[in-house]
Specification:
Elements: E1 6-9, H1 13-24, E2 29-32, H2 36-55, H3 61-69, E3 71-73, E4 85-88, H4 94-107, E5 113-116, H5 123-128, E6 136-141, E7 150-155, H6 161-173, E8 177-181, H7 189-205, H8 211-222, H9 228-235, H10 237-251, H11 260-267
Parallel strand pairs: 1-2, 1-4, 2-3, 4-5, 5-6, 7-8
Antiparallel strand pairs: 6-7
The structure holds nicotinamide-adenine-dinucleotide.
């Protein structure tokens, strides 16, 4: 199926990145969130970031204008009725995602593909909430979407070949490299990443090192671009905790138990870059 119009539901940091990449690839992109104002603010944020890229001479004004003109904030999910694919990128909560998939299923034309950018939640479960389970698929983009190369592709038990092939082709057309993961909690990337971030929180709680010493040890000792705390702050500590809980519940294995320190930071509302404070202050 030729995919033209794209809908993105949830226009936070990941949704905004997906909108930008889709718009840059020439798609008209409908942006939906909890209100028109939130979606509009996300579009304004994209325009502001692109303007900086233009200032630095890394993009022409004409290219920026083309991307921005492809972005159409809308006021409700119902307005996604004629998109060819809707990509859900809302908060990482199982109950919320199931509700949103029911609503997308009601709103979107019956041929449309429904994709989720979830980091960890069962695609099979979201698919089962719709009347088109064979057209539901996982497209797990990495943060920041315009920069990161990978899209992890996940088929639910019900996903048909056509849907899977069409979405892999779409990710590739957007300049991404795809890998395929089975539909188990955390897929590939977060199955490995989240226990590591969680262990860093436990190490910090035990006083093995400071935030700075742990991050510097990993950066310089393992030649990683970021230490675990800088990365957790970028992802959002609420999201790290939510994924941790999906792994813990999904495998029913105590090795995935979320660190008490991580829980405490989320209770405090210290969610990382997006709230101005996490392990670092921004
Ligand atoms: N942060 C990362 O590094 C990262 C990486 C890959 C995937 N993801 C996944 O992407 C998704 C979004 O994460 P994020 O980091 O962009 O979070 P975020 O907090 O930046 O954005 C979440 C967005 O969802 C919206 N939302 C919440 N409830 C909604 C509803 N009922 N209807 C419509 N919109 C609603 C919020 O208003 C917000 O704009 C999650 O599933 C997350 O696991 C995150």
């Amino acid at each position: 199926m030729k995919i033209g119009k794209v809908g993105v539901l949830g226009t936070g940091q990941m949704g905004a990145g997906i909108c930008q990449v889709a718009a840059a690839a020439g798609h008209e992109v409908l942006m939906a969130d909890i209100s028109l104002e939130v979606a509009q603010k996300s579009k304004d944020g994209i325009a502001k970031r692109l303007a900086k890229t233009v200032e630095k001479g890394k993009m022409t004004q004409a290219d920026m204008d083309k991307i921005v003109s492809n972005l159409k904030p809308v006021s409700a999910i119902a307005e996604l009725r004629d998109v060819d694919i809707a990509i859900e990128a809302a908060t990482e909560q199982v109950g919320l995602k199931i509700e949103l998939f029911k609503k997308l299923d009601e709103a979107c034309k019956k041929e449309a593909i429904l994709a989720s950018n979830t980091s960890s939640i069962s695609i099979t479960l979201m698919a089962a909430a719709t009347k088109r389970p064979s057209k539901v698929v996982g497209m797990h983009f990495m943060n920041p979407v315009p920069v990161m190369q990978l899209v992890e592709m996940i088929r639910g038990l019900q996903t048909d070949d056509q849907t899977f092939d069409d979405t892999v082709a779409l990710a590739k057309a957007w300049g991404k490299t795809t890998t395929i993961a089975k539909d188990y909690p955390g897929f590939i990337v977060n199955r490995l990443l989240i226990p590591y971030l969680n262990e860093a929180c436990s190490a910090l709680m035990e006083g093995i090192g400071t935030v700075e010493d742990i991050d510097t040890s990993i950066k310089l000792g393992l030649n990683n671009p970021m230490g675990p705390f800088a990365l957790a702050d970028l992802i959002g500590l609420d999201t790290v905790l939510a994924i941790s809980r999906v792994l813990h519940d999904g495998f029913n294995d105590p090795k995935y138990r979320p660190s008490a320190l991580l829980v405490k930071y989320v209770e405090a509302g210290w969610l990382g870059r997006k709230t101005g404070r996490g392990f670092y202050t921004y």
